[in-house]
Design a protein that fits this description.
The chain is mainly α and 861 residues long. Helices cover 72% and strands 2% of the residues. Strands 2-1-4-3-5 form a five-stranded mixed sheet.
Length: 861
């Protein structure tokens, strides 16, 4: 054997470095000792290739790798199919080409390496000692080609080969750890491409097994920790399990400890750990996680100087962290920093960068937040321009297009409020239309919200330009909105009203109600239209259309028979328009039918239900109208009866209480006046006589006092008064005299409102909240006496002081649970206990006596 070959053999077998250098520097003539055709020439070529490859592994000089490839190719030519060492030459040449691919990036080297590895694998059948190596490296090559070209089939092949290699590298095999590690990497990569959670779970299990084979001190332990952390972070993203995120953070910290300053992968470890902490902040809200994420991102950014391929990522996520901290702390410096970092990231992300849209979007968000904080319109203008650019990159079908539409709409809304520019209004309308096209249809909360906003904007444009197309758009939006809100929802009623307002506007333009009717073939829409036309036309002249409206109402009632959810509404709507036609034309059959329809509606509505109150009120009005026409006294008696029933369902505080109270008063006045009233209208006409004033005041006093305690202390006199005494005191007061003298100058509605204000103010009372002590005065102790004249025992002193304080603050009436209830009457006591909460709630003020904290003071203190 020639000297170079001996030395090469010694190196290959024993890894003797001194021999390696000596071999490589030998003159080329040494190879000439084995000329073409020499039986050992292929061995010499192969061994020299191995030596150059080993030196490349140690020194990283690309020329050594080139030489190894050249020598291997020459050796392969001499080791034709059937040669005993052809497999190892194929394998080694594939390794060198793969190494050059990783160094230079030429895809041709990778493709050739795959072909050569396949050929070597074919020569290493099951049972061959080197088969696992061929499987392992062929898997790595397929994994690399998938990263380069994105072909999932290559990744599937890598996983299949990796599994086969792992089966051959049983526990104890020296390279089992890397086989576990790389198979886990390939499964994780397929998860990121395909989204199969099973791949991710298996990757985690494999990484754990690899980590167990990399104990503390192992050179590859940090890699296993790092990628296992990534897998846990990904699993948290799809499953939302905080325990996975905690595990990712723990593993990331452990990896960072092993990747000290100067480590080639320290930057990515800092970056990934910062991401996990930021994600946990967003889930849990711990500001410490966010602060630590900012520190780690800054450290990673310092290790990614200008020109570094990952610098834009560090800038981008550090900006997001500052933006988030601004949101929770409101420090302007944080949002300013977010803007600066966002701008820097945007400069590095060219128009074709995959994440440019997200960078534009987030920078726009920061600028909008600054505008909201500081009010600089320049920031808002830039934010709008950035959102537009982001939207241009998020075409139809993009998962984040809706977010861009929403945020651009928010910014334009802010500018519209500030400048009220017509162009912004037009663009906003277009944006909200696009949002509605993108959203899931009816029933979605945000769908309804954007209908609200679009409806408002289109109506705003109508106010400016009165465009017929916009009116049609409002009608269409109104119908969509009605489908998004359930009946009973306040928005449902609002949209019904707005829809019919627009329909009525179009009706007035067209002067043809059939246009609207044709647009409403379904019973619900027709009914909604009728109900609100009834309210919109008010007392105006609807003679030109009332006959058509009644006809529509009859048709709607046929579509809503008994049992239909809109049956009652159909009945009352038809009745309302029949009454309206009776008022206009005086046709008695119309009012007769109206009465019948209201009675039918009442039969369907449960007795005593709040929903029956408006039916009772409207029926009473119909009966009073018929009484004015026909003077049938039973109609007036029934009107009084039904209005009383309505009033019971509309207690004080109910928005329609005053309406029923006033109607009942008018019906009673009709009855008092006798048959002469048959020629007068039952509508409110005002009150003219003093006795009538007193009667109305008395009704309202009774209504105000009916929920108050029956006994109250008069703080001015110190006497306990029952209800009759309270009313007597009021009728003797100056307030009562002033009330009577002011009535003649007001209309009926104003009279009722003014009386209620005066009466409610006069009868305001204060309750005492205290702890019972010794010798508390009972009702029998103060009944018929002036409390201010009694000897001041502990309990009486407290009561006297309480009443004096009430009087000093302008309250005429006071109530204490010690002496304002007859506790000797079990029935009264039980009733008082039941009403106690209501009495405290209705009081104008509650005074609290702190027996352990205060000493009684003189009134002048």
């Amino acid at each position: 054997m020639a000297l170079p070959d001996c030395l090469s053999f010694d190196f290959v077998e024993n890894d003797v470095t001194v021999d390696l250098e000596e071999i490589i520097v030998l003159p080329q003539s040494a190879l000439d000792l084995c000329p073409a055709g020499h039986s050992n020439r292929s061995d010499s070529l192969h061994n020299r290739a191995v030596c150059f490859s080993r030196r490349y592994d140690k020194q990283g000089t690309i020329a050594d790798l080139q030489e190894a490839i050249t020598l291997c190719r020459a050796a392969l030519e001499l080791r034709s199919p059937g040669h005993s060492h052809r497999a190892v030459t194929l394998y080694d040449l594939a390794i060198h080409l793969w190494q050059r691919f990783r160094k230079v990036g030429a895809s041709g080297d990778l493709d050739e390496a795959i072909v050569l590895h396949r050929s070597a694998l074919d020569l290493r059948p099951a049972g061959h000692s080197d088969r696992s190596d061929s499987l392992y490296y062929l898997a790595i090559c397929f994994g690399d080609r998938c990263r380069l070209q994105g072909t999932v089939a290559d990744l599937d092949e890598a996983i299949t080969l990796g599994r086969a290699a792992l089966e051959l590298r049983s526990p104890g095999h020296s390279n089992r750890v890397w086989t576990l590690y790389n198979l886990a990497i390939h499964l994780w990569e397929r998860f990121r491409k395909v989204g199969a959670s099973g791949d991710l779970d298996e990757a985690i299990a494999l990484h754990r097994s690899a980590l167990d084979l990399c104990p503390v001190g192992h050179s590859d332990r940090s890699d296993s920790l790092h990628y296992l952390a990534i897998c846990f972070g990904d699993r948290c993203c799809i499953q939302g399990t905080i325990a996975d995120l905690d595990e990712a953070i723990t593993l990331g910290r452990a990896a960072l400890e092993l990747r000290a300053p100067g480590h080639s992968h320290r930057a990515v470890t800092l970056y990934d750990l910062a991401i996990y902490l930021w994600q946990r902040f967003r889930k849990v809200g711990a500001s410490g996680d966010l602060d630590e994420a900012i520190v780690l991102h800054r450290s990673a950014l310092d290790l990614r100087p200008a020109g570094h391929s990952d610098r834009s990522d560090s800038l981008y996520y550090l900006a997001i962290c500052f933006g988030d901290r601004y949101c929770i702390q409101g420090t302007v410096a944080d949002v300013d920093e977010a803007i600066t970092l966002g701008r820097a990231a945007l400069e590095l992300r060219s128009p074709d960068h995959s994440h440019r849209a997200a960078t534009l979007y987030d920078l726009a968000i920061y600028l909008w937040e600054t505008f909201r904080k500081v009010g600089a319109s320049g920031d808002l203008d830039v934010a709008i321009a950035l959102h537009r650019s982001a939207l241009d990159l998020r075409l139809a079908g993009h998962p984040d297009r809706l977010r861009s539409l929403n945020e651009l709409a928010n910014c334009l809304s802010s500018r519209l409020e500030k400048l009220d520019a017509a162009a912004d209004l037009d663009e906003l309308i277009s944006l909200h239309q696009a949002i509605l096209d993108h959203r899931d249809p009816q029933g979605h909360h945000y769908h309804a919200m954007h209908i609200d906003q679009l409806f408002f904007l289109v109506r705003k444009r109508i106010q400016r330009h009165d465009m017929a197309a916009d009116l049609g758009e409002c009608i269409s939006l109104g119908r969509s909105a009605l489908a998004s809100y359930q009946p009973g929802n306040p928005s449902h009623a609002t949209y019904l009203h707005d829809l019919v307002t627009d329909l009525y506007s179009r009706l007035c333009r067209l002067e043809n109600i059939s246009d609207v009717h044709d647009a409403h073939p379904d019973s619900a829409a027709s009914l909604q239209f009728l109900i609100y036309v009834k309210d919109l036309v008010g007392d105006g002249d609807v003679t030109p259309v009332v006959d058509v409206i009644v006809a529509i109402a009859r048709a709607t009632l046929k579509l809503c028979p008994a049992g239909h959810p809109h049956h009652v509404m159909s009945l009352t709507t038809l009745a309302a328009f029949l009454l309206r036609r009776f008022q206009q034309q005086g046709t008695v059959p119309d009012v007769d039918e109206a009465v019948i329809r209201y009675r039918e509606a009442l039969e369907v509505c449960p007795s005593g239900s709040p929903a029956s109150a408006p039916l009772l009120h409207d029926l009473a009005r119909c009966l009073s109208e018929r009484f004015t026409k026909l003077a049938t006294w039973t109609d007036l008696d029934d009107a009084i009866k039904f209005e009383q029933a309505a009033l019971e369902l509309r207690p004080q505080g109910h928005p329609d209480h005053a309406e029923s109270l006033l109607s009942l008063y008018n019906y009673r006045q009709l009855k008092i006046k006798g048959r002469g009233a048959s020629t007068q209208s039952a509508r409110p006409t005002g009150i003219t006589s003093g006795s009538q004033f007193k009667s109305l005041i008395g009704d309202i006093v009774f209504d105000v006092l009916k929920g108050f305690p029956p006994r109250l202390l008069d703080t001015r006199t110190g006497k306990l008064c029952d209800r009759d005494s309270q009313i007597t005191q009021f009728e003797k007061s100056g307030e009562y005299g002033q009330l009577l003298s002011s009535m003649s100058t007001m209309d009926t509605s104003a009279q009722v409102t003014h009386i209620r204000e005066v009466v409610s103010t006069y009868f305001r009372y204060v309750t005492l909240s205290h702890r019972w002590g010794k010798f508390e005065p009972l009702l029998r102790d103060i009944h018929g006496r002036v409390i201010y004249d009694l000897d001041p025992t502990d309990g009486l002193s407290k009561l006297q002081f309480f009443c004096q304080e009430c009087c000093r603050h302008g309250y005429f009436w006071a109530w204490s649970d010690t002496c304002c209830i007859d506790k000797e009457s079990s029935a009264e006591l039980q009733e008082a206990i039941g009403f106690m909460f209501s009495w405290y709630r209705l009081s104008a003020l509650t005074m609290v006596h702190l027996a352990d904290a205060l000493r009684y003071r003189r009134a002048d203190q």
